[in-house]
Amino acid sequence: MKKYFLILFSIIILFCTSCEEQIFPIGDDTPPQLVVEGVIEAGEIPIPPVVLLTRSLQFTSDGRQLSIDDLFVHDAIITVSDGAQTVTLDEICWEDLSEDQQKLVSENFGNRYDSIGVNLCVYADVNEVMPGEIGKTYTLNIAADGQELSAVTTIPPHVPVDSFYFQNRPGDNSPEYFELIAKISDVENRPDFYRYFTSTNNSFFDAPIASVGDDLLIDGKEFEFPITQGETWLEPSNPQDYGYFNVGDSIQLKWCNLDENHFNFWSTLEFNFFNQGPFGSYTRIDSNIEGGLGVWGGYSVSYYSGVVE
Description:
By secondary structure, the protein is α+β, with helices and mostly antiparallel strands. Helices cover 14% and strands 36% of the residues. A hairpin with a 2-residue loop joins strand 7 (137-144) and strand 8. The protein has an 8-stranded mixed β-sheet with strand order 5-6-2-1-16-15-11-12, covered by helices on one side. The protein has a 4-stranded antiparallel β-sheet with strand order 4-3-7-8, with no helix packed on it. Strands 9, 10, 13 and 14 form a 4-stranded antiparallel β-sheet that branches. It has helices at residues 2-19, 99-109, 260-274; strands at residues 34-43, 47-55, 77-81, 86-88, 90-93, 121-124, 137-144, 147-154, 161-168, 177-185, 193-200, 212-214, 222-227, 245-246, 250-257, 293-307. The protein has 2 domains: 34-154, no CATH class; 161-307.
């Protein structure tokens, strides 16, 4: 019997190790890669291209010896083309941004740079020559640090929210917490990809931990689903009331459509966030940047507002 269990245990170990993919970190002799975070939006409030360009850290880097400011890439040549015209983005730093521009940058790049003392610099179409338009394809080209990067994104047709309402938190009918339910009518026989952000009481727009979805199971259907309140990593929510809203809260919903490559980036990034811990499997983030890391993505956007009563 003991021999039987030893054989069985050996087979299980062999099976598990044969299914694992061995991952080896990049060595110290590999130069840092450029990391792109770029966005362009169409809709009620069209937004021209904005790009944040940084450098990656080596796997064995000692972060204590680094300045965050040193990670930002300066003097890059960045252009965006829509097939009819090309615009060169200007580098502009935090103190030169207007209050509205600072809010836009913080919301799109998920950080509160005014509260962490970073001299952020971004590349933007400051003259608003190229606001985003639904149906157009935008090609990004970057030359910096002796490297050349490129990416392509398309702003897809928009599927608006049909209606929304608030209801008591499921399970306990708590008079304190409410959830937001939205309804959409998905377009039949067309792949649609969605992402959303929320703002509470005129705060920044934040995405929840799981912010993207596709129409694989709801193609062509009317569909109701809960909207989770977004959160910033600087101000994490209490797990007991995560995602819910309070009576009297003024809510804004930023509802977005994005193309498949843009969706794949956020989908794999969010999956990697959930798949943490010592027994989590490795997830490779699906970037659409040729020659670098990160994402260049377009959104078609609509906004909705309401008060929790």
